[in-house]
Amino acid sequence: MITITMNISPPHPSGVIGIAQLCNKAGGKYFTRHDEEAALSFSVYCGISISNSLLFKKVQDAQYRSKLASDLMIYHMQVPQTDLDNALKEIKLNCDTPPCFDSLLFPTYVVDEESKTV
């Protein structure tokens, strides 16, 4: 029986992401050096595949969280037109603002020479 651990780079917190075992060789009593090398090579590819699938899952999770955060921000940034109209009415009724405040047209302001400081 051969037991091979599959490690990944960068290392997994536990250091091992899988274990491959070869048991009961068909057509022989024991595993040869060639069998061990083939199993080791295969375990490397298995480790790479597992590592890639873990990274892919992390990327998918990050994309989902990013989209969710973006959707929540867009949802909470939208103001219904009725709320906007009510707020504008309140500003016009409760504030001492010039009647042209919401149009952004303001009269020019002239400073006389005596009020200027050097």
Descriptive account of the structure:
With 118 residues, the protein is mainly alpha-helical. It is built from 2 helices and 2 strands. The radius of gyration is 36 Å and the shape is rod-shaped. The mean pLDDT is 77.
Instruction: State the share of residues found in helices, binned by percent.
Output: 40-55%
Number of separate helices: 2
- Indicate the overall shape: rod-shaped
Taking the sheet with the most strands, its summary is:
2 strands, antiparallel
Order of helices and strands: EEHH
Q: What is the C-alpha radius of gyration, as a whole number of Å?
A: 36 Å
Give the beta-strand count.
2
Strand content: 5-15%
- Which class best fits the helix and strand makeup? mainly alpha
Poorly predicted regions: none
Mean pLDDT, to the nearest integer, reads: 77
End-to-end gap: 94 Å
Strand order of the largest sheet: 1-2
Brief synopsis:
By secondary structure, this protein is mostly helical. The protein has two helices and two strands, in the order ββαα.
List keywords for this structure.
single chain, two-stranded antiparallel sheet, 118 residues, mainly alpha
Task: Chart the SSEs and their pairings.
Elements: E1 2-6, E2 18-22, H1 33-77, H2 81-94
